[in-house]
Design a protein that fits this description.
single chain, 316 residues, alpha/beta, Rossmann fold, 2 domains, 7-stranded parallel sheet, 12 helices, 12 strands, binds 2-keto-D-gluconic acid
Length: 316
């Protein structure tokens, strides 16, 4: 089994009982493509990250490969159709990261609305030498309308948090969620109606052919001028040029972004000079507790499949 980033050794105990485990030795540096291809040629299992492309080239040159476990709930880096064709089980890490990612999405809502990062920088930079009633005044979150695009497990967890803030909850999803409507007071809306009515538009959709670029010029134009756009789903769901334009021209008021079209984001990206943008380095699930659980789950998935058992969390 090859693990494509350095993970804490103890998270892979279950796996090590079943397999010889090789690991890329760096935590923050992605495994080079040629190393990944070479390791895949001889591996029965791969424990991969979102940054690893598990495509046709890799899968067709991995004759012993039985299982790929991605350290993420998303798996848009993996050609799952090809994997199925080649009898390779693909696994993800759902559930264990739901609450941490929802916490972070909510942190972005609060940070963007209440200008938390801008205000913290103001203090740290020694600029706090007076006071005025509207100094760094932001927008309220409580009692506002939140529109959740992508009402999966994480979307529902965000809705639970929004209920605690007495928010009015709208959602858009490829299929209706009767349980969320009943238990979370979430009201289904067409995409454009949701955009028109929401104070906070929160993207938590997976990246698919339908969601790619769905937040385009027309979408931002449909939002309120006071709207704050949050993305804790996938960067490619957004036309970034359109978002930059919407922010620069007052079409919407602000954004809280954990994901980007290209990650890491370029150091000269226009987002980085905008006070109304809170940009984070894709840390949605990055609590120590959750990252340990994700690694353990990915390791167990591989161990189960190599043992001839069903994976705990296969993707389809
Ligand atoms: C990643 C994520 O797991 O789960 C996902 O789909 O986007 C994140 O939680 C993280 O970036 C590590 O790949």
């Amino acid at each position: 089994v090859y693990v494509t980033r350095k993970l804490p050794e103890e998270t892979l105990n279950a796996l090590k009982e079943k397999a010889e485990v090789g690991m890329w030795p760096h935590e923050e540096k992605a495994v080079p493509r040629e190393v990944l291809l070479k390791e895949a040629q001889k591996a029965e299992g791969l424990l991969t990250m979102l940054s690893d492309k598990v495509d046709g080239e890799l899968l067709d040159n991995a004759p012993s490969l039985k299982v790929v476990a991605n350290l993420a709930v998303g798996y848009d880096n993996i050609d799952i159709h090809k994997a199925k064709e080649n009898n390779v089980t693909v696994c993800n890490t759902p559930d264990v990261l739901t609450d941490s990612t929802a916490d972070l999405a909510f942190a972005l809502i609060l940070a963007a609305a209440r200008r938390v990062v801008e205000s913290a920088n103001y203090v740290k930079e020694g600029k706090w030498n007076s006071w005025g009633p509207l100094l760094l005044a932001g927008a309220d979150v409580h009692h506002k309308t939140i529109g959740i695009v992508g009402m999966g497990r994480i979307g529902e967890a965000v809705a639970r948090r929004a209920n605690g803030f007495d928010m009015n909850i709208l959602y858009y999803n490829r299929n209706r969620k009767p349980d969320a409507e009943r238990n979370l007071n979430a009201e289904y809306k067409d995409f454009y109606d949701l955009l028109k009515e929401s104070d906070f538009v929160v993207c938590l959709a997976p990246l698919t052919a339908e969601t790619k670029g769905m937040f385009n010029r027309e979408a931002f134009q449909a939002m309120k001028k006071s709207a704050i756009f949050i993305n804790a789903g996938r960067g490619a769901s957004v036309d970034e040029e359109a978002l930059v334009d919407a922010l620069q021209n007052g079409i919407i008021a602000g954004a809280g972004l954990d994901v980007f079209e290209k990650e890491p984001i370029a150091v000269d990206h226009p987002f980085l000079t905008m006070n109304q943008v809170v940009a984070l380095p894709h840390i949605g699930s990055a609590s120590v507790e959750t990252r340990m659980k994700m690694a353990e789950l990915a390791g167990r998935n591989i161990a189960f499949v190599l043992d001839g058992k069903a994976a705990e969390t296969p993707v389809s």
